[in-house]
Amino acid sequence: PLSSRLSGAPGNVLSFSETRAQQLVNHRAERFLCFNQRQLSRIYPSAYRIDSSNFNPQFYWNVGCQLVALNYQTEGRMMQLNRAKFMVNGGCGYVLKPPPMCKGTDTHRHTHTH
Known about the structure:
It holds the Pfam family PI-PLC-Y. Its EC number is 3.1.4.11. The protein has helices at 2-5, 18-27, 29-38, 58-61, 77-87, and strands spanning 13-17, 40-44, 67-68. By secondary structure, the chain is α/β, with parallel strands linked by helices. The chain has a single domain (2-107), classed as TIM Barrel, CATH 3.20.20.190. It has a three-stranded parallel beta sheet with strand order 1-2-3. Residues 107-114 have low confidence and may be disordered.
């Protein structure tokens, strides 16, 4: 069940296919974000991508997923987006999450209403 899947032990990396991860983003985004504040998650391309195309990694970065795997053999906009994201930190291989995505942060405090 989803509840046990989203309550992994510290130090574990849980892997989700893009299909399953997209369901979580669409239907349980806040819970997925809270999970990603405590755990590492890896999103990998669907087995149906026989052409090695890439999904949009931004959806998963937006809910705090740390490891978003793309098909590096396939150039295109999604690989450009991936390269651009990691260029902002000098190309060192990681980018720190914004404070609202970190454990212990009150996410409601950072929400603005206009």
